[in-house]
Amino acid sequence: MTRAAVVAGVGSALPPVRVTNADLVARLDTSDEWIRSRTGIRQRFVAPAGTATSDLAVAAGAKALKSAGGHPVDALVVATTTPDRPCPATAPAVADRLGLGHVAAHDVAAVCTGFLYALANAAGLIACGAAEGVLVIGAETFSRILNPADRSTSVIFGDGAGALVLRAGRADEDGALGPFDLGSDGSGRDLITVPAGGSERRPDGSEPPPEDRWFTMQGKQVFRLAVQRMSHSARTVLDRAGWRIGEVDHLVAHQANHRIVARLADELGLPAERAVSNIAEVGNTAAASVPLALDHAHSAGELAAGERLLLTAFGGGLTWGATVLTWPALDRD
Q1: Which parts of this chain are annotated as the region Disordered (predicted)?
Q2: CATH of the domain at 278
Q3: What residues form DSSP beta bridges with 134?
Q4: Which helix (DSSP H) or strand (DSSP E) does residue 121 occupy?
Q5: Which of 21, 250, 254, 257 is catalytic?
Q6: Is 254 tagged catalytic?
């Protein structure tokens, strides 16, 4: 039987600083009601000074490895928009700190779709025989790239990390990742972006203006495209897997905004209660959001072995993707 990537462990980590809506109201022209009604967010967590993306990735990765019962891994993929450094990648340092030895380790940059891309990458490593076990981490310190005076972004994003351990197994096992659908549209790259920091804004060696180093997003256009692309991608993988929408027990979508997730569930014809949500507690954590939602739902006992999950995400690039799996039996802390 064809080799498949099977979920063997799950973990997550949040930084210690909790920022409530009340904290933001004190310095921004906004209100708790405005934030909740538009985003569904009550609080988010922010990495304190001295805490890097790799610190959160190591913490989440260690928990996932423990959850997997020490299953060996010979590759690591880190999905992040906020790496420790522009060069080198963050993953090798994370692998070193986790004591994984000289394993293959690299980053994936697809913004909020990053974890889905990383999962597909890891599944490919297992399918082709290049790895027997892969640790996949989504980790972000998005607070580092937000303009603190920008109400439209500061209220939405938070920091955090989530991880899955994948092992080689059979496609008919619980935990096996199903078919993937991935896509992109570079014509929309300006809708979700940090304009400066790369080669494009420094053609003559001069420094770009400071405001170009902040994250920006065109919310209204992103809302429409996110629902459209995620719903299409989700239907594509369901068709490939031979699943009917009514057979999906849980929708685990990128936690972008509670209205986007609700609209997506409605578009797919899924009852709202089947959509996993933790955005109220942690905000939008970009590439970390899908694994964070999985770990929080698992820890809360919301995911039972044998239940069918549909994962999907949308992010900058523009990028999007989806996959399916049947949740395995995993120990809970």
Answers
A1: 177-213
A2: 3.40.47.10
A3: 75, 166
A4: helix 114-127
A5: 254
A6: yes
